[in-house]
Amino acid sequence: MRILICEDSVLLREGLVRLLEDSGHEVVAALADTAGLVDAVRESTPDLCILDVRLPPTFTDEGIRAALALRVSHPSLPLLVLSQYVEERYASDLIAAQGGPLGYLLKDRVADVTEFVESVERIAAGATVLDPEVVAQLLTRRNRDERMLRLTERERTVLALLAEGKSNNSIAGMLFLSEASVEKHITSIFQKLGFDPEDGNRRVLAALAHIENSGFADPNTTNQGGLS
């Protein structure tokens, strides 16, 4: 797989290059900022792009804005965004955007090389992979949505695992259920939320985008993230 990296930290950037190449992938470009990102994507035609959320010059949202721009210029390009901490607003912007496969992981996940590389490969193959912490905050901050309140505790657990990119078989194993039971839970979840259960990975994006945009967040609750 051909991968483009945009990460300002030299140590993390070089570490990503090393572990991805050691895993048999080709890093076609490794950038320190977004200045030449569009040209690099056009010239190197990567199969997946990895971006940090905070990049020079302001170290605020350059990576997110670059990712959203790539969603417009290269809508089918799989994207993996890395973040130091959970920042709900940035995750929500990406989830709500239309486009190809998406990953949003905390940088701590890179330490587990095997799991990280598996996540990269699943995203490139079309999966949606969201960090469990991101999923937890999105679901918790929107728990006043009446539609979410229709879900049972088990259905919430299944939805969170789906958003992490887990397959039905994996969920069944983790929850000690039959795969048929998992499928019934999924059907029930999307009936209650008003989404088609046959939409593949987009059903996860649609559900989370719906939750985020429903406007039921408590204005007196502060963001537990804080930047990833």
From TrEMBL:
The record's annotation in SMART domains points to:
HTH_LUXR, REC
An example molecular function term from Gene Ontology annotations: DNA binding
Any idea which residues bear 4-aspartylphosphate here?
52
Per its UniProt record, what InterPro entries does this chain match?
CheY-like_superfamily, NreC/VraR/RcsB-like_REC, Sig_transdc_resp-reg_receiver, Tscrpt_reg_LuxR_C, WalR-like
HTH luxR-type domain location: 144-213
| GO BP field | phosphorelay signal transduction system; regulation of DNA-templated transcription
Response regulatory domain location? 2-122
The record's annotation in PROSITE patterns points to: HTH_LUXR_1 (PS00622), HTH_LUXR_2 (PS50043), RESPONSE_REGULATORY (PS50110)
Keywords from the UniProt entry? DNA-binding, Phosphoprotein, Transcription, Transcription regulation
Superkingdom per UniProt = Bacteria
Q: Name one Pfam family in it.
A: Response_reg
State the name under which the record lists this protein.
Putative two-component system response regulator
**Annotated organism of origin:** Microbacterium esteraromaticum
